[in-house]
Design brief:
Aspartate Aminotransferase, domain 2; 381 residues; single chain; Aspartate Aminotransferase, domain 1; alpha/beta; 12 strands; 7-stranded mixed β-sheet; 5-stranded mixed β-sheet; globular; binds pyridoxal-5'-phosphate; 14 helices
Length: 381
């Protein structure tokens, strides 16, 4: 079956008890057992819940994987992947990660004896040089926030495999509709389902998918042992979001391309970052490893901080807010929001200047989005 069909049907058979067409929200913590050792596969909802099972099966299918696990947040999912490591192990990671991932690695997991080397994954020789005999995991994120740079999942996975390391890819920005990292050689895919998979800015969640039975069993053990599970209603919300993932992603992409092309021609705009523009430095890689370019766009205003502040104050359709991937368009100022903790010099060196704005382009009418930006930027000059 094709993606859009799997999104609506996998793990979502009519309810065996009632025939309910939609997977019910099994809002229960426990399950009445028929007798000693006789039950229907569920005993306690941290260990397993039928609504969560439906979500896990659907996520696995969309990532072309055998196994899926759902978590209470993207960072809980990330923690489950890192639970595969032990004190003394080393991780090579891209240097342009989601801020919360960096914080988890640097401020929490280093205290537990795991060490990290962050380097630019666009340069394969830098990743290669960062490997040590103790390296057990290569952690990648592509495309990245907010500069929308890519790394070559296939080439980097090959390199890691030769050195006996696991490869995990944070696939949040692309969604499985546009990119399936395990098809390119990665071992584990990680999502913040808060973003495109949920798709409606009404739930926080996370997920992992893999084809490796050993990694799956270990992360499933950790899921139950540590307990960072999503509740039945949150699982249901993500599952509901997944049903429209295919149509949403197509519209996010069409709108993002229209917005990126508009911005590229705008005299007040210095530069536009969107992997779907042929001028993007990794356009060829994007075409090779992604099936589409998703809905995230960032751009730099010539007028710097002052111009950015006025755009933020002038937009009406775009909301000035953190997060991304919902049906509504959002605008963020990375320098003062997601990247505020980064030293200014390093931030600027990465292009995260005071004049940089990031857009999560929603699925409203593209003409309205462009008119909103045109008016807001026009006022900036
Ligand atoms: C939001 C996000 C996360 C963290 O997910 P939460 O659901 O907020 O815990 C991780 N990676 C990326 C790329 C994200 O955008």
């Amino acid at each position: 079956m094709k993606f859009a069909t799997r999104a609506i049907h996998v793990g979502q058979e009519p309810d065996p008890a009632t025939g309910a067409t939609i997977v019910p929200i099994y809002q229960t913590s426990t399950y009445t057992q028929e007798g000693l050792g006789r039950h229907k596969g569920y005993e306690y909802s941290r260990t397993g819940n039928p609504t969560r099972t439906a979500l896990e099966e659907c996520v696995a299918s969309l990532e072309n994987c055998r196994y899926g696990l759902a978590f209470a947040s993207g960072l809980a999912a990330t923690t489950a992947v890192l639970s595969l490591l032990e004190a003394g192990d080393h991780v090579v990671a891209g240097d342009d990660l989601y801020g919360g991932t960096y914080r988890l690695f640097e401020k929490v997991l280093t205290r537990q004896g795991i060490s990290f080397t962050f380097t630019d994954p666009r340069d394969i020789s830098k990743i290669e040089a960062a490997f040590r005999p103790q390296t057990r995991l290569l952690w990648l994120e592509t495309p990245t926030n907010p500069m929308l740079t890519l790394c070559d999942i296939r080439a980097l996975s090959e390199l890691a495999r030769e050195r006996g390391a696991i490869v995990a890819v944070d696939n949040t920005f692309a969604s499985p509709y546009f990119q399936t990292p395990t098809d390119l050689g990665a071992d584990i895919t990680v999502h913040s389902t808060t973003k495109y998979m949920g798709g409606h800015s009404d739930v926080v969640g996370g997920a992992v998918a893999t084809n490796d039975a050993g990694h799956y069993e270990a992360m499933k053990f950790y899921q139950n042992a540590a307990g960072g599970v999503p509740g039945p209603f949150d699982s249901w919300l993500v599952l509901r979001g997944l049903k429209t993932l295919a149509v949403r992603m197509r519209q996010h992409e069409a709108n993002a391309l229209a917005v990126a092309e508009f911005l590229r021609e705008h005299p007040e705009v210095e530069s536009v970052n969107y992997p779907g523009l042929p001028t993007h430095p990794q356009y060829e890689l994007a075409r090779r490893q992604m099936r589409g370019f998703s809905g995230m766009v960032s751009f730099t205003l010539r007028g710097g901080a002052e111009a950015a502040r006025r755009v933020i104050g002038s937009v009406r359709v775009f909301s000035f807010a953190e997060s991304l991937g919902g049906v509504e368009s959002l605008l963020t100022h990375p320098a003062s929001m997601t990247h505020a903790a980064m030293p200014e010099e390093e931030r600027e060196a990465r292009g995260v200047t005071e004049g940089l704005l990031r857009l999560s382009v929603g699925v409203e009418d593209a003409e309205d989005l462009i008119a909103d930006l045109d008016r807001a930027i026009g006022r900036a000059s």
